Amino acid sequence: ETSQTKRPLLLLEPLPEPTLKTLSEHFTIHPFTSMDELAKIASGIQAIATGGSYGVAPEVMAALPDLKIIAVNGVGLDRIDVAEAKRRNIHVTVTTDISTNDVADMTMLLLLALKRNLKSNEQFLLDGQWADGKLPPLAHSLNGRRLGIAGFGRIGQAVARRAEASNMEVAYFNPHPRTGSPLTFEPDLGKLASWADVLVITLPATPETKHIINADILEALGKDGVLINTARGSVIDEDALLAALKNRTIAGAGLDVFQNEPKINPAFLSLENVVLQPHQASATVETRLAMGQNIIDNLLAFFSGKPLLTPVC
Ligand code: 8YV
């Protein structure tokens, strides 16, 4: 292609340089700046590349009469009106199963950091207390503990494999039992929370799962229980979580996602019984390059009339 024939592509999320370099060989990339600027190029835009946590704002989708495909750099669809995309015959693709293992790793990282006092032990060492002959408080083992997984899709199943490798007992909550899984299916989230020592959230963010983790669930999880969230912030009632953390209704939480990212509720920042990450579960070089390649492959397939690799619609 020449610059005259390259299709314009609206970029809503920063992508790794190698991904952008390859994309720019086939598309004229327009990073989104404002709706006013978008209006100047809107009629030509046929493709969007965006992130799972960025999505596509309704006003952006509405402003693009020629939009034909949205390639998502992630698997979360909570920020995209898929029904509206279908109505307008806009294809949507996600990076299916590319980030599964990294997100499951982050889930276990948050759990282990929390249970093994990673942050406070390092501070203990940095403060010189170990050198002074002191010892930090004992931590808690995963061995033999009960891990409940809320949401048993690809990521939840990958977490289960890791938890079983840590000799944990695993059960799961899901809208329906996972055929072929030998693990215990618990259709009642409250009962799962009561049973579990650790509750991991890997549910998709939907209207049905909004605030599904509420004060009652946290109460059921109990004073020795810990909560891990690598799904979306919206699945947790954050006011209830903050109260439960402050009042020790639960022992602690490991959180990679929050409501109102990146300006999260400052109350999280003063808590000692949390391990926090800035939505980094899939953010490894290897996985983000593979996700970027998926975006490229889907876009090139679409515009050459070939089947999409990982379509949602
Ligand atoms: C990315 C994600 O951090 O898969 C998702 O939906 O949240 C993550 O993989 C996100 O897509 C970046 O916007």
UniProtKB/TrEMBL annotation:
User: Keyword annotations for this protein?
Assistant: NAD, Oxidoreductase
Which residue intervals define the domain D-isomer specific 2-hydroxyacid dehydrogenase NAD-binding in the entry?
109-281
Q: Provide the D-isomer specific 2-hydroxyacid dehydrogenase catalytic domain boundaries.
A: 10-312
Q: Which family does it belong to?
A: Belongs to the D-isomer specific 2-hydroxyacid dehydrogenase family.
Q: What is this protein called?
A: Dihydrofolate reductase
Source organism (scientific name): Bombella mellum
Taxonomic lineage from the root: Bacteria, Pseudomonadati, Pseudomonadota, Alphaproteobacteria, Acetobacterales
